[in-house]
Write a structure and sequence with these properties.
The complex is a heterodimer of chains A (115) and B (118). Chain A has 115 residues and is mainly beta. In chain B, the strands form two sheets. In chain B, strands 2, 4, 5, 6, 9, 10 and 11 form a seven-stranded mixed beta sheet that branches. Chain B has a four-stranded antiparallel beta sheet with strand order 1-3-8-7, with no helix packed on it. The termini of chain B are far apart. Chain B is mainly β and 118 residues long. Chain B is globular, with a radius of gyration of 14 Å. The chains are: A mainly beta (115), B mainly beta (118).
């Protein structure tokens, strides 16, 4: 079955430390992978995407993500976390599901950066 | 206004009411989406409109009825809802490839309508 998994409901990290938010996927064919962020009372906001090419993708606000085909993962990373990074993060994959192209989102991971 | 706007931002309704959610995108996109966001659940895709044609209905109950009069506007008509329909309803838009080909364009989301059904 096609799916996206975010195994952690919440990730806590101290300000200034590196952060990782995990995402794994299961999809046939070449996936297009996305990360979105949701701040309180707001819609989702695009951060970055992997389509093809370099496995390390750089996005907004200093975030980057590493595509690992053998591990079917697309973890979100940032070298130094800020308190303002605290938000809900969603991984998504776009692929061919049930006869049509569509996006599938994960359950979200709440990131808490502690001062 | 820019981006994707949604009105109202908050809505409280009884189970016998009829109301509508409105979404407008100012990005010139050709696809629009309705999602339901509930706590601790994946984002649930409800409806997709490509080039104003409904291309997806993910087994959504008939008490939710979408309408897409043009490529910039999307409505979600609500009637006889249940308390479990309380959630954040998000609208999104994207620019899709024609002819059923895959595209890799990201979606742009509105701020959502927080719906409470009493």
């Amino acid at each position: 079955a096609q799916s996206v998994a975010q195994p952690e409901d919440q990730v806590n990290v101290a300000e200034g430390n590196p952060l990782t938010v995990k995402c794994t996927y299961s999809v046939s064919g070449n996936p297009y992978l996305f990360w979105y962020v949701q701040y309180p009372n707001r819609g989702l906001q695009f951060l970055l995407k992997y389509i093809t090419g370099d496995n390390l993708v750089k996005g907004s606000y200093g975030f980057e993500a590493e595509f690992n085909k053998s591990q079917t993962s697309f973890h979100l990373k940032k070298p130094s976390a800020l308190v303002s990074d605290s938000a809900l993060y969603f991984c998504a994959v776009r692929g061919f599901f049930s006869g049509t192209y569509k996006y599938i989102f994960g359950t979200g991971t709440r990131l808490k950066v502690l001062a | 206004e820019t981006g994707v706007t949604q009105t109202p931002r908050h809505l409280v309704m009884g189970m016998t009411n009829k109301k509508s959610l409105k979404c407008e995108q100012h990005l010139g996109h050709n696809a629009m989406y309705w999602y339901k966001q509930s706590a601790k659940k994946p984002l649930e895709l409800m409806f997709v409109y490509n080039f104003k044609e409904q291309t997806e209905n993910n087994s959504v109950p008939s008490r939710f009825s979408p309408e897409c009069p043009n490529s910039s506007h999307l409505f979600l008509h609500l009637h006889t809802l249940q308390p479990e329909d309380s959630a954040l309803y998000l609208c999104a838009s994207s620019q899709e490839a024609s002819g059923g080909r895959n595209s890799y364009n990201e979606q742009f989301f509105g701020p959502g309508t927080r719906l409470t059904v009493l």
